[in-house]
Amino acid sequence: MSSTSSLIIAGMRRAARSEASNAQVLERKQACAHALLNRPWILKEEDPELYYAVKDYYEELRDWFMEQAGFPLIVTRSMAKLEKTPAVPQPWMGFKEFREVRDYVFFTYVLWYLEGKTEMDQFLLSDIVEEVREQMAVAGLECDWKNYYHRLSMTRALKKLTSLGVLILVDGDESGWAQDEHKNALYECSSHARYVLRRFPQDLNSYTSMEQLTDPIRYADTPDGENLRRRHRVYRRFLLEPAVPDRHWDADLLPYVLTQRRSIIDHLNRMFGWEGRRYREGLLFFHPELTSEAELFPTLSGTSDLVLLLADELRRQLNQEGGRYLEADGTIRLERSELEGILLRLKERHQAYWSKEFREMSSAQLADLCTQHMIEWQLGEWEDANVFLISPTVARWSAEYENKDEHED
């Protein structure tokens, strides 16, 4: 082998190693971005490898999230957190464990109580509830620990704070207190308590509207400031919502989405690996592969299967001559009676594959379940009490149950 050939081979090997190294760096950086976007925070004690990876790429991650979305990245000696503020708050963005508005009230007041504590301070559950009750009374808010439902709400708030690692349960159980107000529990305070609530860029008394509260940073009252706010609102919606069709954009934001779609697609692809496509209904993004960080549609629940079966049936009807048609914006309009009729036929056809719970549901119950799931994934919405608008995205799916007997043959 000549020396020239040896040099060429050596160069090729170095290039291959460099390419593999670059791919590993990109994969590690994207893992950090996904975790920051989907987790409340990354704790060093729970995931040290990922925590130190965020520190390694801190400047790049900080600059990207602030420049594109206005999300501040906070890194302390024990945690990393991306402060995520939705541009359009949605009901499903809350804590799934909570059942009442009161749960959030107690959650916030416990955080107020923890402001006076330092790391590793120990205190009793009875201390928390007594000080919270007194503080709420000063604010004119009702709080009665003799009321079982109030104790149940506080229990949900405490359990959530414990699961987040804000409270550390040392002894006892808040569930016992929910059943009997004379029972107690012992807690410790973690160093993360002060980072749970969002930090506002200015004093709350200076805000004059709820919409202003959705701004993650303070924008200058100039054309450049308005342009920055516009870009941030667009990226925040794409980052935090499963799908944003054109009809859901404000009039001042849609032109930005249309003219900057190539830049948006490139930015989100490089940072997250998402694949963006422009469709008739809007700009949509997809995960190219499964991820443990985010819940993707279709989910593992049977309700997603139900939506996919509905999608397959609608797709079939759209392809029939004289069958169902699309509205001008690509949506599919279904009266509730039509939806229930389709689901009833799907039940008759596929119930052998369904769970007992689904088989025992009425068509009305199936319709409620199905529409709520689509609303949460922004795949549909109620136009009024009787008409449901289904996103054209739904009709892009096609699904059916595999016939195992045929497959085995």
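(the above was protein one; protein two follows)
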Amino acid sequence: AGAVAKKTKLYKIFKKSENVARAKKNLRDKQEELQKIITRKVNTSEDKFSIMGKYTSQMAHDIKNPLSLIKLQVDYMKLKYATAEDEIMLSSLHNIEKAIGQITTQVNDVLNFLKDSPTEFKKCDVNEMVNTSLELIKIPDDVRVEVSENHGIINCDEAKTKSVFANVLYNAVQAVGEKGEIIVGINEDEDNVIVTVQDSGAGIPEENLEKIFEPLFSTKKGGTGLGLANCKQILESQNGSISVKNNPTTFTIKLQKYSESS
């Protein structure tokens, strides 16, 4: 039994090491892509790049902490692994993977904000996209998520619109914490499908309601302030919109209905 348990622990370490290696490669790829975009357009006067000039020092500061954590964990593993229990190794690998993930998220936010990829419209089912986006988010056991059974059909860029839903839903999960509820409504008016994401969190300070879609504005520790700004940019490029209100906190996303002529 002891030998089996040892093999199981070693397998877990092997799989976790693979996850860390993949996360590091993904981060390197994203950093290279970001550098190419910035290098190609650094001499332009586009608003996006003047914004990124302001963001550079903030990003450098924000990634310092997770990078320090990675170095600390590696040093700890070197010191302890020869005599430590395998669980310590697993825990260290988990912390490294999490730290790399934090940096990758920041780089992704910047990439998504800067990219000028064309919008590719197609017929999409809102219900399917919302549920697919939810599958990518870790939801605490005591958080209840209710999604409307309506199937609004829209004309949109599927990948970009899914990223909007994922961002707004992830923010809702963070706002709720370990216990609460999130209700996703899907309704229609004459021209649009309207998606509402309501959460039972503490709400957004009133003085921040008008700022949360502005680039670089964030109330999250380590946040880029580009997530919701990118959502707004994506939706407006598709003739849609996003807004928010309190009591309860509700994000409202409007997207054009699909029609044969669109």
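Reviewer note on protein two: The mean pLDDT is 75.
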